[in-house]
Amino acid sequence: MADEELPPSRLGTKDHWDSVYEREVRVYNDVGDEGEVWFGETSVTKMRKWAHKHIKPKADGSAVRIMEAGSGNGTLLLSFLTSPAPLQDVDSARAGGQRPPKYHLTGIDYCESAAVLARSIEQSRRETLPSEIENPESDSDDDYDHDSDDEEQGCGKGLIMNDVECSWRTADLLRSDLGGEKWDLVLDKGTYDALCLSDEGIEEEGGRLPSQVYPEKIAKLVEEAGFFLITSCNFTEEEIKARYTKVGLGEYPLPRL
Ligand SMILES: C[S@@+](CC[C@H](N)C(=O)[O-])C[C@H]1O[C@@H](n2cnc3c(N)ncnc32)[C@H](O)[C@@H]1O
């Protein structure tokens, strides 16, 4: 049976997202507001927790490579700047006694302004996070949800800075193969939802719809034995599974979010 398509909307157009991020960059520069967190902080926390649990450090000490498709303001990827650590380990971790997780994070979005915004937020987080971690009580009015791992880790404010390199790129994921590059984990939070609201066929792909082309593009970006983790508000788990496990695409574990 053919997949049912959603009715087209402005949220499926690049013009819409360009204007969103151009405005968000202006607002960020004016008042420091980081912009919309799609599906809220809870979804960021759930996706990050899933990754911490399932993606093991590399045996050779190299960085785990994570890419967010349609990274917007970058807040999901930037949640990997820190990790929760059990309280008794925090001091030793901060003193260098425990090696922090090492990540290479790549945010890809087709809006240049999204990359501009994400870079600014990254810079600000790198400046403020170390002192917030040192003085946990001073961050009470901070939007960044440091407490959100408490129930899993039982660690209060025990956070450590991870060893993280970030790269923010501009590319249309429907029209680029990104030079054959692959990642250990590819994240999608709201991007498939957005591009399924476009009825503009992709010329380079025989005029097929974004909803059909995107899963094939994503499949090529995931390392063998890597993961694709998606949060969607427009599709059920069964619909996502059906669209991302077609013959030739491979099979992905889909945590319930
Ligand atoms: C709903 S927003 C989600 C943004 C981000 N993932 C988050 O959770 O905050 C959808 C994002 O997908 C991006 N996007 C949509 N179609 C894209 C495409 N073909 N290539 C790259 N990015 C795309 C938009 O620019 C926008 O940033």
TrEMBL record:
Cellular component terms per the entry's GO annotation: cytoplasm
Entry superkingdom: Eukaryota
Region annotated Disordered, chain positions: 123-156
Gene Ontology biological process terms, A to Z: methylation; vesicle-mediated transport
Enzyme class per UniProt: transferase
Record carries keyword Cytoplasm: yes
Known EC number: 2.1.1.-
Key words, A-Z: Cytoplasm, Methyltransferase, S-adenosyl-L-methionine, Transferase, Transport
Function, in words: S-adenosyl-L-methionine-dependent protein-lysine N-methyltransferase that mono- and dimethylates elongation factor 1-alpha at 'Lys-316'. May play a role in intracellular transport.
Family to which the UniProt record says this protein belongs: Belongs to the class I-like SAM-binding methyltransferase superfamily. EFM4 family.
Full protein name: Protein-lysine N-methyltransferase EFM4
